[in-house]
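Entry 14. Structure prediction run on the chain below.
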Amino acid sequence: MFPIRENRLVLLLVSFMLGMLIDMFSDSGGVHAAAAICLAYARPVLLKTSFGMLYEHQSIKFSNTDLGSLITYVTFGTLIHHFILFSLEIFNMSSILLILKKTLFSSIFTVILSILIIILFSRKKK
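Output returned:
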């Protein structure tokens, strides 16, 4: 939901601070901060993939976009974030099935919850 026209460095700093805040309270050693930074870094690619020409013209308004593009954006972002998070948390390639299972089931719940919150709290301007 961070504005597209804002400075990208601000997004990276805010992502890092949010991740570190979660890490400090959950004593997780920086995995949330790393996952948040990676997601913030991948955001332009996700926006271009999900919204296409709207991103090129920097005219994306999440309250005015179609639901399919929004679901694509949230799903890809959530999958990237959770995969990095669980990969760093488990940090064992022999447990790749566990990483994929945790990523899939956590992502399903997170995507449903995120889409519901975005729909409920977005204001349609007519």
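Helices lie at 8-26, 31-51, 53-56, 67-90, 96-121.
Filed with the rest of this week's runs.
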